[in-house]
Amino acid sequence: SEVHSYNVQYLVVAGGGGGGQGNTANYAGGGGGAGGLRTVATKSFAVTKGATIPVTVGGGGAAPGADDTLGTSGCNSIFSTITSAGGGGGGRSPSSGAGLAGGSGGGGGASPAAAGAGNTPPSPCTQGNPGGIGGDPSGGTGTGANNGGGGGGHSCAGTNATGTAENGGDGTVNGVRGAPFDPVAYAGGGGGANYAGLPVAAPGGGGIGAKYDRNATAGGANTGGGGGAGARIPGGISAAGGPGIVIIRRLTACSTSTSGTVTTCGSDTIHSFTGDGTFVV
Fold this sequence. Notes:
Layout: E1 5-13, E2 37-39, E3 45-48, E4 52-56, E5 77-79, E6 82-84, E7 172-174, E8 184-186, E9 245-251, E10 261-265, E11 268-273, E12 277-280
Antiparallel strand pairs: 1-2, 1-3, 1-9, 4-5, 4-12, 5-6, 7-8, 9-11, 10-11
């Protein structure tokens, strides 16, 4: 008999937040929060044959480009009824330096400043974690003097680290596309800026925070990684978050759809969207 509906697996990753910018008084900004990540591990999401479903892929939040300025939050990614929230922008410093809430929260600037909340707005399966709290000039909760908090990394299962000052939180390894493309880590938090040590990039596309004499790096393309934080301008400029991605996996026999970028893995067909489009069921 004719198939009128079938089930798909999905991965929906939002854009990462931009890193916050510190200032010339040796106060460092917080890393951008990772974009929210929502996924199902099996083909369990029902779609109707012949339907057309809009797909939105969220862009990464911008770096502010000015001293003592918050990073811009990333944009949402959407597939059908599934929305992943953009990562929160990283905190500035020293005043009102809190990171912004989002899929994962932006890290606080070195005031010490509060971190942005994760999983905001709430989703049934937690799409991200809070950012890390910024450190004050004596170190505070940071791992060294004047560190900003990295944005929180995502784990739907709650097993990966929340972002801490300096380093961004780890992302989530997901194998929805199959070999040879996966497993790939998505949605890592951006690193906080640091005036002394060398921050480490988080798995999952998170950018590296700046030093006083080295600019931050951006979140990875189509990973939803948060942007690294800035220490000052010039010499230690923050970076943008990475754009997200939407991936849909189905049984090949269910449809002849050619939506998005199409790959195959065994008996399955995978549709990957790195920009806005339409999934024809």
